[in-house]
Amino acid sequence: MKLLQRSLVARIVASLLAISAMALISIVVTMAVAGGSRGDAAAINVAGSLRMNTYQIVAALQRYERIPSLEHRAEVHVLKRRFEERLDSEELTGAIPVSEAHELRRQYRLILGRWHNELAPQVSEAVASQYVRIEPLNRTLDGLVGDIDTMVKQLEQNTEAKIRLLSALQILFLGLTAVVVAIALYDIRHNLVAPLRQLMVLAREAARRNFSLRTQLKGSDELAMLGKTFDTMSEELGTSYAELEARIKRKTRELERSSQVMQVLHDGSRSLYGGGNDLCTSAAPMLRRVAELLDIGPIRLSLNDPHDDRQVPILATHAARRPDYCRDHDCHACLISPQPIRLSDTEDGDCVLLPVSVGDEMLGTLEVWHPKDERLSDGVRRLLNALADQLATAVYLQRRIEEEQQVSLMSERTIIARELHDSLAQSLSYLKMQVARLERMQAKDAPKEMQAAVFDELRTGLNSAYRQLRELLTTFRLKLEGPGLQSALQQTTAEFAERMGAPVELHFDVPPHLLNPNEEIHVLQIAREALSNTHKHAQAHWAAVTVKFHEARIMLRIEDDGVGLENDDSPPMHYGLVIMRDRAHTLSGELKLSNRTEGGTCVEVVFTPQTARLITRQPAIEPTLHDQGN
Fold this sequence. Notes:
Strand order of the largest sheet: 5-6-7-9-8
Oligomer: single chain
Domain HAMP: 190-242
Protein name: Sensor protein
Mean pLDDT: 77
EC number: 2.7.13.3
Strand content: 5-15%
Radius of gyration: 69 Å
Number of helices: 16
Catalytic activity: ATP + protein L-histidine = ADP + protein N-phospho-L-histidine
Coiled coil: 234-261
């Protein structure tokens, strides 16, 4: 019973089973009643024929009495035997109830008694005496016929009673079935259809993100439990959806804030990497804006001193005073703050130390203060790490730039010293030796002709030294005024084109930053010396300077259409050619002089620059693979 009350499926199954059971019982009862009524019509016919048979027996007796013959006697015996057969026939006895208390059974017994005790003896006596007593026979016959009529009537009533019973049973089962169906339909409508509609409405509203609707189903069946589960689920979904919306809004604000911070970092990178050396002016506004967006601060940047291993405070946001180390007291970048915050006040805040490092090199630390009761999220920590990395890159680049400037300065000084040593210093040494030689001649009162020769050598040496000094000044002026070798060569070709009154072409195809300053000076000096020789000796109407990089080697070619050389060997005492050969040797290259086929001279220098020498060439494996394939 408790299962039926709680389970809707059990109730529906019970209703179907009840309807099926009543239909089965109705069919069984109908079949039983129909089976019990089988033969009633035959019994009634047989009983009715008994009445006709009695009259036939009396008529045959009367004929036998008028004309006694064997034929009429036999007819009487046949009719008598037929009556007895019909009286004892299966059709008649099968329709009579077995119970002795039944009226039909008693009436049948009465007819049997009248036949065997009254009519049958009278018939036998009449056949034997050939005399028929009509009056007693008619009275016996009337009584028997009356009993037969009563039995026929009882048979008809018994059959009608069975039919009425069958009708009553059919009506009863039909009514019971209708009641069960009505109860089942009522149960299905109120406990299945209505809850399903409420669940469908709840599902549609949930699909529309409306979690406020409730089914309010009561009971303990499946749909009631499902409705309660849906109500609980809808309430939890509403709570979860509200939490998700709040989380999405919070994440959206964090993303917007992170985007703004990334934009600040991107904009700040321009000033950090713009070439300026002042971190305060470039980094302080960026740090202050980041602190404002992330609601943190103050932020303090300290750098490690590479010489004495101590940390030097560089700048701090919301600072009330300048850092102890400040290189520019006219700068107020770190002091622009409407509400200064003391860095020493740590009672209401926590500090996060972030390393400012590049690789394994520790450059400094970044102190980030934030309220003690607010934990920094992972996104904020990633942004702060990106900020620290950006500051580290800026500091590292600034130090590298300063180091490169110092190295460039020292390299420039070294180049100038080498050029002075290789040219002007040697000329001065030569002049010094000639002066010493002249002093010895004067001390020995040498002839004036010998002293005049020394004076000529001194004059030639001074002119050469002055020319070399002028060339060096021109070279270094070109180097300083124009960035790179290409600009210096452009100025050189323009200068000699003006001096020669003829076009001087320049073909330059070298990647940037390939040559170091020393190599650039030697290439420029060789080109100038070759153009100077062309101007003085070649009588050329055209010249060209070609510098290109091919197969990890630099090729410098100076050509003209002048008179050319007597042969491909340079004059042994030509001072300019000697200098060019020395410079080519310094570059670990080779100098070649030759006459052009079209006429004129070609000076060519080929060398491998220092940067190209660092390239590691892979061994050729194609032939090996080819041989293996063969």
